[in-house]
Amino acid sequence: MSTLGKTISLIVEIRPYKSLKQMLEAQHYMCAGCHKHFDDGKTLIRDFAQTFGWGKPRFCEYTGQLFCSSCHTNETAVIPARVLHNWDFTQYSVSQLAKSYLDSIHDQPMLCVSAVNPFLFSKVPALLHVMGVRKKISAMLPYVRCPFRRSINKGLGSRKYFLESNDFFALRDLIDLSKGAFSVLPVMVETVSSKILGHITEQCLICCDVGVPCGARQACNDPSSLIFPFQEDEIERCPSCESVFHKLCFRKLTNCPCGEHLRADEPAELVKRASSVLGLEVSGVLDLFGRGSGSGLLSGLFPKVKAENPREHKDGDNVILMDSFPPASL
């Protein structure tokens, strides 16, 4: 922005601290706005005024510079850099030039959150939620192939940039999100998203033409519900033929119509693997105790015995075999 030879631009980094002396020396003791020397035109009255602080250089929190009292009238504004880095919406004292510039960009999508501070999404859930809804909108929008798109643009007004696939926000958007439960932005983007989804999937014969039926066919829970390209989070695909399924339909199928085994077989496969692993463990335990031989780890603790056929016994031994009982006595 340029006004009467004075220039100012977007600042998204917090200025490092400097003492008053350092700033005066850097500016050669001149106002950053009108370039008048801070000591020019000193009079007895001005000296008297400065003793009360009225004529001292004034600091602009946006530019990080000093201004005279004519160029800095103690107006205040929210500083974009402090919002992006600290989620701080305090009104800070700024120069007239800075105030005019910040007012002019208040509703312009000039703040790229991911470029300045990507960690802000994890610290502000509402911001992350709005960003997620914006991504859904941008994924659905290419499939609006009728005049309905014009009504979407009209409904968003100056916020048409929410239809674009990026994370640029205007300062007013972030200020609105700072209001918490009173914020209107989340409701607005959710309303737009639901209207676009309903239009494509239920209302418009032109736009719903991109939908395909569930690959489960007769086994589908809702055969009339088509699947659309932007519903990747709600569907499953056959790894072989790329057919798409509703997630619930996919889970109850064993095979895809193309013959490919689907995820329904996974539990059985897991049981088979578990049985195999357990079999190895049991085998290892038997080896530990000495399987069929007296050479196991604990074989020395027990006397060796000869394996006998249960039907072979010495005469006189009171051995009763289980199969010697008549069936009625069991």
From TrEMBL:
Top-rank lineage group of the source organism: Eukaryota
Keyword RNA-binding tagged: no
Signal peptide: none
SMART domains per the UniProt record, alphabetical: DUF4206
Gene Ontology molecular-function annotations: zinc ion binding
Domain Rubicon Homology: residue ranges: 58-264
Xref: InterPro entries: DEF8, RH_dom
Keyword terms: Metal-binding, Repeat, Zinc, Zinc-finger
Keyword S-adenosyl-L-methionine applies: no
Region (Disordered): 309-330
Name this protein carries in UniProt: Rubicon Homology domain-containing protein
Lineage of origin: Eukaryota, Viridiplantae, Streptophyta, Embryophyta, Tracheophyta
